[in-house]
Each structure stands twice: as C-alpha cells, then as structure tokens.
From TrEMBL, chain A:
Superkingdom per UniProt: Bacteria
Name by which UniProt lists this protein: Segregation and condensation protein A
PANTHER family in alphabetical order: SEGREGATION AND CONDENSATION PROTEIN A
Organism this protein belongs to: Roseovarius atlanticus
InterPro entries xrefs: ScpA (IPR003768)
From TrEMBL, chains B, C:
Keyword Cell cycle in record: yes
Keyword annotations from UniProtKB, A to Z: Cell cycle, Cell division, Chromosome partition, Cytoplasm
GO biological process annotation, one example: chromosome separation
Comp. bias intervals (Acidic residues): 204-223
Identification of the protein by name: Segregation and condensation protein B
Region (Disordered): 1-21, 190-223
Stretches with biased composition (Basic and acidic residues): 1-10
Organism of derivation: Roseovarius atlanticus
Length: 262, 223, 223
C-alpha cells in the first residue's frame, strides 16, 4: 500500500533525501563524535576520500550544527569545538595565505583531516572484514570432547651430606647440636633495645643523652658497647617514628639527646 | 643399578632412542585431539618421550590433515585441531551464542589488531572519541586483547596488543595475516601521523583512567 | 515448505544430489570432532545434507583412523573419537617435587651409615626412640639402605646397611669416608654448645673446642 503511494508520487529520491536529512539531526546521539559525523557527511560527496573537498565538508558540518541549534538539540561540547575549528579552517582555506602567520597552513590542516577520515574509514572497513572472517565457535570448531591431562605428582625425597652429618651429630650430642652461628652474647638486639627504652621513656621528661640508655654490662666491653649503642640508636629512631619521643643533636658528633613527646 | 651410573650418558641415549617419526606424528595427533586450546610445539614435546622432534612431526601431521574435515592450524606459536571452516553449516548445534559486540568495541579491536602495540590515546585519536573503560574491559575479559609493553614516550603509556586467543578465534596464524594489512600499510593508513598544530585533539577526557590502569600492570608485561 | 511435502521424494533427490562419499566422510569427521558427546549415526546423518549415508561414511572414516593417534570408536550405538589407548601415557603430566627427608629418616639413615651393619634395636637404642616402620620402608624404597646379613645374636635379627646408590648420592666412595664428629667440629661445620643446664652428657673433648670457637668469633666480631 505504502509502496504504491511512493511510486505514484514519483518522489522516492526526495523522500529518502529528506529522511536522511532528518536522520542526521534526530540521531545526533548515534554519532560517535564529530569525526564520525564528518565521515557520514563526506559520503554525500560521493568521491574518493583522498579527493574530498574539505571546504565543502566544513560547510556541511557547520550547516548541520546550525540546523541542530535551530531544533534546539543539545550538542555535546566536542561537536561545538569541531564546529569552531572548521569555521577557522574554512576562513584559512578561503583567504589568501598570510606569510607572517605562524603554524600550519589551511591546506596542511585540511590534508590531515582528510587523512583522519580516510584512516577511520579504513579501520571501519577492516573491522567489518575482521568480523566477516570465519570465527571459532561459529564457522569452525574446537574439540568438543577434550581429554583432561592428569597431573601425576611424584615426590622425591632428598638429603645432603650435611643433613646426614648434622643428624648424626644431633643424636650423638643428645640433640644439643646447632649449626655454626655467631656467638650472640656480645649482641644487644634491636628488640631488646626497644623493650628497654619503651620501659624507660616514661621518665625522659627532659633531654637526655641516649648513651645513658645503654644497659648495664654493655658499656665496658667495646664489642658489647658497640652493639648496644647501635641497637639503642635504632630503637630511638623507631620510637621517634612512632611519635613517642623527640631526638636532637646540637652539632655533628655531639651527643644525641632524646625526650618524651607530649 | 650401579652399572647405569658408572657409564656415561651416550649409552643411556641409545637405550632410550626416540620413536620413529610416524610414531611421533601419532603422539602429536593424540595430544592435539585431546586439547581444545592451542598448544605449543614445546609443550607437546615436553609430553613426548625423550628425543622427539614435535616441530617436525607437526609439519607431517599438518600435511596429513590437508583437505580433511578437521585441520591442523597454527595459532601464533601454538597449534590446534579445528574443523574445516567450509563445514560450519553442519555445526549449528555446536554454535555458541557470542556476546554481541558494540560497534565501538569492534572498531577498537580492529584498531588494536592493525596498529598494535597501540596506546589508548592513539585509539582515541583514530576513532575521534574517547574510549570507554567498559569497551577495553570487555575486550580484555574476552581475552582478545592484553597489555603490551609500555611505550617509551612521556608518561610511558601502556599499550594494547591482540592475544593468541584472538588469533585462534579469527582463524589467523599470525597478526601479520590480518586481511588487508599490507594494503593499509602501503596506503600509509597505519602510520601514526601527529596532527599539525591548532587541530582539536580527539578524546582527551580520560587522563585519570590511564593513570589508574597504569598502576599494577607492570607485572603483566613480558620482559 | 509446502512444496516439499507435495512432491514425492525421487524428484527431491535428483534436485539435491548427495555429496560424494569422500565429502561425507569429511563431514562425519568434523561433526565427530566437534561434538561434546558420542553421537549416533542417525544423528550425524540428520545434520548432513539430504541423501547422505552416515553409516557408510563412518565405516570409511574408522578405517582411515586405524593405527593413528586417534581412533573412531563405537560407544553403545553412538560414535566418538578417542585418543589411541596405547598413547594414554601422553595424557599425563608428571611433576617431580623434591622434598627434604624428615628428621627421623635422616637420623635413622645417619645411624645406619655410621654404624652399619646395624639392627633396628640398635638404631632405637642410639636414637632413644623407636623407629617407625614407615621410616625404614621409605629409606629402603629410596634404595639408600638395604638389608645386610643377619646378626649372630639371639633371634638372629636382620641388619641394615647403606647401598651403592646412597654412596653415589652423597658423593662417597665408601661409608668409612664419612667424617667423624671430631672432624666435623674441626672443620668448623658444627657448633656444639648445649643450652645451659644440659652439659653433663657432653664428651670431654668439647670443652676446649668451645673456647677455640669463641676466640675465633670474637675476632670476627670486632672487625
């Protein structure tokens, strides 16, 4: 019925044109940005994208934006940015080049826009070709009945000669065997220092030399004193970091002084 | 017992000679039939007896399946058995309904495939719009794309590349086999031409997103 | 649609001639490969173009796969492709995990090595605890120990000795090469300081040794 009407009117051409024009406006949200819109508009020129008239395209785009405005359609900001830029490009293309002006010429800008459109078009075609390929699970298929690979875990036990000798020594010395280690008697560990200082800082209301925090028995022997000093210093830094104490030093190599905070 | 260890390796090798090539071919065939996912020659060889040459056996096997209902295809550096594409019409029952990809996702995928390794900014420059996070996530989730190396440009942006899974899905042996790749390259359409000054930059809105994804991804990079 | 039922079959057959048998074989092959379950000849035929004879094609296909890595097998009245049974070993992936021997096993082994030939009762006496059967079995299984001669004592108990395999593993020519305790200490490998209060059992030779090590350590420490 409706087909008949069209034929009778003999105006198919103008109807489709009109519908296309409306579609452009109504579907403004259907465009994926100004470049997509430009590409669609370029099709009306019906020429190779390499020979496209960017000037004509700019005019088409600006006309489109005008129409959209007339219809009070909300246009996203990037469409308006593109419109402004195309207006600028149009003026550059129309006016004779100004030799004093810096930056790329209107022709260069137009050429790049044409390149962008051609590249986008090429990617669209490529994606169509890609999706048109035979696809796994649609045109060709993987094994429907895969077999599981059973994993066999074999445990292999091992030991070294040292294990063996240590094992024997352990028995012969009734379990009191330890691998070689440093004598730790001359050591005052960080943990020990922290524990000791945590107990003492409660009394440190005034600035006190951290040397006074060395434990008894760790001051005479140089090795022991060195270890205790290092640990106490590290512990003082740790407590400072925790915000429990303050540290100060009046000059290089002067005694470090510590005070309870707050 | 003690004899074995006293003698050097050569004797051991002769004791365990590699099976004849026809037998190696059978073994590859069995392994490939058993697995649905592509499997590398190296992995196949690891499961075969000592001294086997999976790569050679696979060449023979591929030939044997030429023109058959099932083919041996190469997917990246892996191999898989797949039904011949011309027989797809018999398989309606096996067809798995794939999620319909949006136009944005398809285009993004194509751009990654043809321009890889490509940054998000480059994809946006080509499409002229910002790439939504969901699109990239969807492609990552489908395992069609993955993160590639960071680009040695300011900000060291991450790049995207297509996966073996992608190649498998589209029946490509190699990303170089993408349809029309040569022509596009010859036409200069795969070049990354910077826009001359004073051009509006496309799809800039996603700076924060880039930063977000950048963290924690380093581990994903090979090398 | 309605046309089909109006016209008799003969005409239809001439319109849609069945594909050649080789092609039918290909079709069966692809269907069998892709289906997740065994499938009957009837079902296969239902998916093939009109006029095909799946039963015959399957006979050809079965023959084609004879002796291959994959067989066409009949499962009830359905068909399926299966890897050849003799290649089942390829469907296994063996991983070897190395673990340290338990302390009990090491000690038992050490006693056997140092005291061989030694009976279970003697091992227990030296260790001060009973030796579990599992420990001995494990060492036997590893072929690090074996049964020696029976002891000429009441009950004629079996003894254990270490094997050649054991010597090989530990790089020893002879069990007598095992270093004695003194040597171990002299080599500085062992420290021998018991925790306080457990000195009584110590051998005499240990005292001076302690002093020795102590001196050495102090030096090290001061630098």
């Amino acid at each position: 019925m409706s087909e008949d009407t069209f034929e009778e009117m003999g105006q198919i051409e103008s109807v489709t044109d009109r519908m296309a024009a409306e579609a452009l406006i109504v579907d403004v949200d259907g465009y994926e940005g100004p470049l997509d819109l430009l590409l669609t508009l370029s099709r009306t020129q019906k020429v190779d994208l390499r020979k496209i008239s960017v000037l004509q395209l700019a005019e088409q785009y600006l006309a489109f934006v005008e129409r959209a405005k007339a219809l009070r359609l909300e246009l996203a900001a990037d469409y308006l940015v593109m419109a402004a830029w195309l207006a600028f490009l149009k003026s550059r293309l129309l006016l004779p080049p100004d030799p004093t002006e810096e930056g790329p010429s209107g022709e260069e800008l137009a050429a790049h826009l044409a390149f962008q459109l051609e590249r986008l078009q090429a990617m669209r075609e490529a994606s169509a070709r890609l999706m048109g390929r035979d696809q796994l699970g649609r045109d060709f298929f993987a094994r429907g009945l895969p077999e599981d690979v059973t994993r066999i875990r074999r445990v292999q036990y091992t030991a070294t000669l040292l294990d063996l000798m240590q094992g024997y020594a352990r028995i012969r010395t009734r379990d009191e065997f330890r691998p070689y280690a440093f004598d730790r008697e001359a050591l005052f560990t960080l943990e020990q220092a922290l524990e000791r200082m945590r107990g003492l800082i409660g009394f440190a209301g005034t600035w006190t030399d951290i040397a006074s925090y060395l434990p008894d028995g760790f001051t005479a022997d140089p090795a022991r004193r060195r270890s205790a000093t290092a640990s106490t210093f590290a512990a003082a830094l740790e407590l400072t970091k925790e915000g429990k104490v303050e540290l100060r030093q009046s000059e290089v190599f002067a005694p470090l002084e510590l005070r309870r905070k707050g | 017992m003690s004899d074995d260890t006293d003698h050097p390796a050569p004797q051991e090798e002769s004791l365990f000679e590699a099976p004849p090539m026809a037998e190696q071919e059978r073994m590859c065939e069995a392994i490939l039939f058993a697995t649905a996912e592509p499997i590398s020659a190296k992995e196949i060889e690891a499961r075969m007896p000592h001294g086997c040459d999976a790569a050679e056996a696979l060449v023979h096997l591929r030939k044997r399946y030429e023109g058959r209902g099932v083919h041996l295809v190469k997917v990246g550096d892996a191999w898989a058995m797949r039904t011949a594409p011309d027989l797809g019409f018999l398989m309606q029952k096996e067809t798995v309904e794939t999620r319909k990809l949006s136009r944005a996702a398809i285009e993004t995928l194509a751009i990654i495939a043809y321009h890889q390794p490509v940054t998000r900014a480059e994809i946006e420059e080509i499409r002229g719009v910002s790439v939504s996070r969901g699109t990239v996530d969807q492609l990552l989730e489908m395992e069609w794309i993955r993160f590639g190396r960071r680009k040695m440009t300011p900000g060291r942006p991450v790049t995207f590349v297509v996966t073996q899974h992608f190649l498998d899905h589209f029946g490509l042996e190699n990303a170089r086999d993408l349809p029309g790749l040569k022509e596009l390259r010859a036409a200069g359409l795969l070049e990354n031409r910077p826009p001359p000054g004073e051009m509006p930059q496309m799809g800039e809105g996603d700076e924060d997103l880039n930063e977000e994804t950048e963290e924690g991804q380093t581990e994903l990079f090979e090398d």
